[in-house]
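Example record

The entry below shows one chain as it appears in the dataset: sequence first, then structure tokens.
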Amino acid sequence: MTPTSATAETVQALLRSAPQSEAQLEQLAREAQTLPIVELVYLVETRPDTEAAILFRVLDKDTALAVFESLPAPHQAELISALRTQQVADIITDLDPDDRASLFDELPASVAERLLHGLDADQRAMTTAVLGYPREAIGRYMSPEVLTLAPGMTAGDALAHVRLHAEEPETIYLLPVVDRSRVLLGVVGLRRLLVTDPDVLVGDLAHEAVHATATDDREQVARRFFAAKLLAMPIVDGEGRLVGVLTVDDAVDIIEQENHEDSARTGGAEPLPRSYLSTPVLQVVRSRIVWLLVLAISAILTVQVLEVFEDRLDEVVVLALFIPLLTGTGGNTGNQAATTVTRALAVGEVRVRDLPRVVWQELRVGMMLGAVLGTLGFVVSGLVYGTAIGTVMGLTLLSICTMAAIVGGLMPLVAKKVGADPAVFSNPFISTFCDATGLIIYFTIATAVLGL
């Protein structure tokens, strides 16, 4: 969101003037405190580091924490280096353990260790537990602060327990029920406790929990979380013992990160670690240059194909006119199939074992698309350039659409099978592959039909 209010513009002007005096800083603080959190986050993300630090320092503690928690972890790490030691300590202490772990990932090891040792024993233990899981594991995003109930409690006792400890956990709307070894037995919703007779045992109220293991992949768990329409999900270890809970805000963050990553790679780039306007130019270049080089090298295949069929082009020059149309159609058809299958993989609608069904589906879709476009191509090009050229165009469009649809649907599944990110097989890569292959199909059909 871009700040548009007069107050936001005033704050930006004050920051640009590099306020130093106490009066200037007080004016900045007054103006900044009237802005909503979303505009303050935008300003901190998009202003230079020194200006962002000045703005952050004049905010009150609660507002500063709300802004800090809304920033991506890489941006948090950069802001930390520009803040006063005491302010850093206050922020780190108030963060949830999972948010703290994400921040520590971005900090130099020495800084992270110093901040970790500055925490009290309980907070340090919870943060260390979260840091012990791999970055892609859901355990890295759970909150270890969980309010649990025992099966032998009555509903009345359970409500009293919730009231006494309501400020400690991240959520109280879903309450795990565990035995003495913390093995998960089930869950109880807060609403059910409120409407149940106080003498009913919690064990009788508990129902089976939709849960995940701490080492499970974060994206798969987050997708399951939303598919089940949950507010919170218990996370257990390999022996079924409760170790934390995944809340809806953390699940949203995971999906947003995955979608951002997939979107960037589909476009042939790496995701930026922070907001676009605050990312240094060289970092933006690095995020794009690798894929551009890969695609440029792979595009040489297209040039080689044209060189092989150069004599056919010399004989029938009109064939060159249709090359952009055919390569564009093949690339677009492949991109559509790849995007559809990649999304289906992400939401669990398709699995690797469904590969034959996906190929069969895309074969039929490609042939139908090719039949429609081929018929149109035959009619239009036939009227202008003759029946022979129309036949070449019709057969080529039919063949290219069928091939591109199959390739586009197949590549994400192959990527998943070999453990790669399906989004890496991005649309530009598929376009380049379909360009070269489509030209081979085109000139092969032209050679046969026109007798070249």
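Notes for this example: The mean pLDDT is 84. The domain at 155-263 is CATH 3.10.580.10 (CBS-domain).
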